Amino acid sequence: MKLSVVIPAHNEEGCIQGTLDALANELDREKIDHEILVINDNSRDGTEDILKRMSGANPRIRYINNRPPNGFGFAVRCGL
Predict the structure, then answer these.
(1) How far is residue 56's CA from residue 49's CA, in Å, rounded to a whole number?
(2) CATH class for domain 3-79?
(3) Where are the domains of the chain?
(4) Rounded Cα–Cα distance for residues 54 and 15 (Å)
(5) What is the pLDDT of residue 3?
């Protein structure tokens, strides 16, 4: 069974890379089959650029751009 981790994000340029790196490293270390899905809720900073780069480098990281910004709950439901 694969674990799917859904992370809503809005203007997280300063922390999204560290968060995803730490999460992916821990799941890999524990040998947990997984995917990480980030719902980018119309960020206006460099969040999408970071997600694009990270998803290109790691096929287990994916992202969806959620437009217009609909908030935390909508972003979580979008990921499910």
Answers:
(1) 11
(2) alpha beta
(3) 3-79
(4) 13
(5) 97
User: Dihedral of CA 14/17/23/29: which sign?
Assistant: negative
Q: What is the pLDDT of residue 69?
A: 64
Q: Read off the amino acid at residue 55.
A: S
CA angle (76 as vertex; 74, 80 as ends), nearest 5: 110
Whole-angstrom Cα distance, residue 78 to residue 14?
23
- How far is CA 65 from its chain centroid? 10
- Check if the beta carbon of residue 7 is closer than 8 Å to that of residue 40: no
Q: Is 48 helix (H, G, I), strand (E, B) or coil?
A: helix
Count of Cβ atoms closer than 10 Å to residue 33 Cβ = 10
**pLDDT tier at 53, thresholds 50, 70, 90:** very high
How far apart, in Å, are the Cα atoms of 15 and each of 12, 35, 80?
Answer: 6, 19, 23
Given a contact cutoff of 8 angstroms between Cβ atoms, the answer to whether 33 and 3 are in contact is yes
Tell me the β-bridge partners of 76: none
